């Protein structure tokens, strides 16, 4: 067991992968908690698609993919926030319009680059084992900034997430809080795409937060459990990928999903099995023993 745990760390590319997955899991767990609290899972999916044209343009121009993705995601997020102020249109409708348009633009831009197929596959499914030292630094800086902003705006985000009308009544700037959260989701997704890919990145953002929601009723505790599950799922998925030579991104997501299923079934207060036992006791049904 000790050899199994230590052997991957002998390789530099695995060291980089572990660091990025660990940081992505923590960041997505924290940001995802606010997304889950607000019931905004769809915005995560939208932003994951919205960063595509920025990454495609950056690829064609041979510039930073991370910067390109962040710029495109922020532009789309700002557009959604502005257009959704129209009371005739619900936010999910506006998100659907913009993320479809952004993804379509990305496909068109990508098709102009020679040999774009391989790069598109890497973007869609992740390339965590090909991460460079510069990527590790970028993820570390971006993650640290996100965690700092989240800590500074924690109370405001929680208030707006629990009751938007009350938050608006006490004078909180709901529009700018939405913009800040959209921007944070964008950056969290961009720095995590290399680990699990564009298609699966939503799972890293939402699944650990959903697990934590089942395990605790306290928001502060949720903010600790979700990143722990995200980091643990990432590390476990990488170990399994190394041991069985399978896709790392898929295994990371499947590990997180397995944890979610376990929480859904066995969570002490909200799990399927404990709830079933409580209902049986409440109705006075006592199992017959031979």
From TrEMBL:
**Transmembrane segments annotated in the record for this chain:** 12-32, 39-59, 65-83, 95-116, 136-153, 222-240, 246-267
**SUPFAM superfamilies attached here?**
ABC transporter involved in vitamin B12 uptake, BtuC
- Which keywords fit this entry according to its UniProt record? Membrane, Transmembrane, Transmembrane helix, Transport
- Which top-rank group of organisms is this from? Bacteria
Compartments, record wording: Cell membrane; Membrane
The record's annotation in PANTHER family points to: ABC-TRANSPORTER METAL-BINDING PROTEIN, IRON TRANSPORT SYSTEM MEMBRANE PROTEIN HI_0360-RELATED
The similarity comment for this entry is:
Belongs to the ABC-3 integral membrane protein family.
This chain's protein is named Anchored repeat-type ABC transporter permease subunit
Q: Which organism is it from?
A: Kribbella deserti
Q: What is the lineage of its organism?
A: Bacteria, Bacillati, Actinomycetota, Actinomycetes, Propionibacteriales
């Amino acid at each position: 067991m000790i050899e199994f745990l230590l052997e991957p760390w002998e390789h530099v590319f695995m060291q980089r992968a572990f660091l990025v997955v660990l940081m992505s899991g923590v960041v997505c767990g924290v940001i995802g908690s606010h997304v889950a609290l607000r019931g905004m899972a769809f915005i995560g999916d939208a932003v994951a698609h919205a960063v595509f044209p920025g990454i495609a343009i950056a690829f064609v121009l041979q510039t930073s993919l991370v910067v390109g993705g962040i710029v495109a995601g922020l532009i789309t997020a700002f557009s959604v926030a502005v257009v959704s102020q129209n009371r005739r249109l619900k936010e999910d409708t506006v998100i659907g319009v913009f993320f479809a348009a952004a993804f379509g633009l990305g496909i068109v831009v990508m098709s102009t680059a020679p040999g774009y197929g391989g790069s598109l596959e890497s973007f869609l499914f992740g390339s965590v084992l090909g991460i460079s030292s510069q990527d590790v630094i970028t993820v570390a800086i971006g993650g640290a900034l996100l965690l700092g902003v989240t800590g500074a705006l924690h109370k405001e985000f929680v208030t707006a997430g629990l009751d938007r009308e009350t938050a608006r009544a006490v004078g909180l700037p709901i529009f700018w809080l939405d913009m800040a959260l959209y921007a944070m989701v964008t950056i969290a997704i961009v720095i995590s795409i290399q680990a699990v890919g564009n298609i699966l990145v939503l799972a890293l953002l939402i699944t650990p937060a959903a697990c934590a929601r089942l395990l605790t009723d306290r928001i502060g505790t949720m903010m600790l459990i979700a990143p722990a599950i995200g980091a643990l799922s990432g590390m476990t998925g990488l170990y399994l990928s190394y041991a069985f030579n399978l896709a790392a991104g898929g295994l990371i997501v499947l590990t997180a999903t397995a944890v979610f299923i376990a929480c859904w079934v066995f969570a002490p207060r909200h799990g399927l099995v404990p709830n079933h036992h409580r209902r049986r006791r409440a109705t006075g049904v006592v199992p017959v023993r031979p």
